[in-house]
Amino acid sequence: MSNNSHSAFCFVVTRFRELFDMANVVYNVNGGVYVPGRAYDWAFRARVVNYWMDHGQHPWLADGAGLSFDAIAALPGFQCDGRTVKSYVHRFLATGEFAELPRGGHRSSPPTLSYPQLVYLRCITRVHKFMTLADYVNTIRVELGIHTSEPAVCRALHYLKLTRKKKVTVAQEKFTWTNLNKYVMYRLWQKGVSIMGAPQCTRANLVFIDEFAVKTSSCVPDVGRCAANTVLTDVGQYVPSTKLNWISAMTAHGMLPVTWGFPNGVGLGNGFSAPLFELWFINVLLPSLWQGAIVVLDNAKFHRKDSLRAAGAIFDVEVVFVPSYSPELNPIEWAFGYIKFEIARHWRHVRADPFNEIPRIIFGVPPLSCSRWVTGCGYEL
After folding, report:
1. Are 264 and 270 in contact (CB under 8 A)?
2. Can you tell me the distance from the alpha carbon of 320 to that of 283, in angstroms, rounded to the nearest whole number?
3. 12 vs 33: CA distance, rounded Å
4. Is residue 33 predicted with pLDDT exceeding 80?
5. Which tens digit of pLDDT belongs to each residue from 159-192?
6. Taking a C-beta distance cutoff of 8 angstroms, is the pair 158, 107 a contact?
């Protein structure tokens, strides 16, 4: 920095400090600054509103009668801004209050509710998941006889890690007693508990199967950059979209080289079908597996359980189905997320030659990631 620039910088800093001294700045214990008299308290707001009621301009008086908001703000006893007086008056006319209710601090502050009240708050949240803050305040007042505020309830919910989330609709079948029982039994089977009629769960013998689809129209990015205050446009020739269906298999050591893809409407109907899936299952997957392998499938309609189990028995392969609507038990879902991300990254190559590029991406899934996904789904033995 040159001498002239340094002198100018020092002058600006000195002038800035003088202006703060003229404004009578006081530093508080937290390191912040405030100007005495500028943080208007409830009594000051009441004086402003009462003075306006006695001497201010009212809609029911003749034009020009009474003091304006700016005139009241300039009086020696107030010395504030006209917009401030206007906001106080409008709030009083709308709510009958001179000031807003206290905010209660930042939401990360410790909750003002005691431990039993926090326990009650957690319990009612488990029962009623869609309550508003006003509902919480009213329920605590009626049930416990405690008067609290919405900010205090918000801080308590944040302290309990009961965050707001977007609702996700799930099928009713997921929570039937039959399916919940299957879910518990499956979790026990994951932990190595012997279940009647089921093979012993060993991580090295598990093979996870699932299907996914890719549209060629989705292989074109729809996000780009352009100058500010302009619209991002793209003029191109319309290309019909083609849906490609893929079947893949994964183990804890990586993806198996049994991926099969076909366009929509080829051969056996639109999309996946039971005969097409069984054709791949019997002729491609089973010959590539070892004796004692355990194939894990979901409950898609074209997964005919009796046919698949009978075909697996011929090759000494067990077939296990996860409970309904439980994708968290099939780690290949994580692999599909990785694959679709890579397809979006290499969209030019995928669109030019999908039947070569998509298998290359599938077989390029890192084996270490596969192992971690299998562990994250509960298969640790």
Report:
1. yes
2. 19
3. 19
4. no
5. 888 888 887 777 788 888 999 999 999 999 998 8
6. yes
- Whole-Å CA distances, 245 to 138, 259, 262, 328, 354: 53, 10, 5, 22, 11
CB environment 314-341: b (16+ within 10 A), e (fewer)? eeebbbbbbbebbeebbbbbbbbebbee
Beta-strand (E) ranges in the chain? 26-27, 33-34, 206-215, 243-251, 254-255, 260-263, 294-297, 318-321
Beta carbons within 10 angstroms of residue 86's beta carbon: 16
CA separation for the pair 285, 180 (Å, rounded): 30
The Cα–Cα gap between 41 and 46 comes to: 9
- Give every CB contact of residue 84 below 8 A, 6+ residues apart in sequence: 40, 48, 73
Distance, CA of 118 to chain centre: 25
Contact partners, residue 79, CB within 8 Å, separation at least 6? 37, 73
Which among 169, 176, 168, 199 is positioned nearest to 323, based on CA atoms?
Answer: 176
Where is mean pLDDT largest: 148-162, 166-180, 258-272, 300-314?
A: 300-314
Could you give the dihedral angle defined by the CA atoms of residues 32, 37, 40 and 41, in that order, rounded to the nearest 10 degrees? Answer: 100
Q: Which residues pair with 249 in a beta bridge?
A: 209
Report DSSP state, residue 243: E
Helix, strand and coil content of the chain, in percent to the nearest 5, comes to: 50, 10, 40
The candidate with the shortest Cα–Cα distance to 138, out of 128, 151, 149, is: 149
Distance CA 236, CA 240 (A): 12
Give dist(CA 312, CA 295) in Å, integer. 9
Tens-digit pLDDT profile for residues 78-107:
777 788 888 888 888 877 777 655 544 454
Give me the half-sphere count of Cα atoms (radius 13 Å) on the Cβ side of residue 152: 16
The three state secondary structure string of 127-187 is HCCCCCHHHHHHHHHHHHCCCCCHHHHHHHHHHCCCCCCCCCCCCHHHHCHHHHHHHHHHH
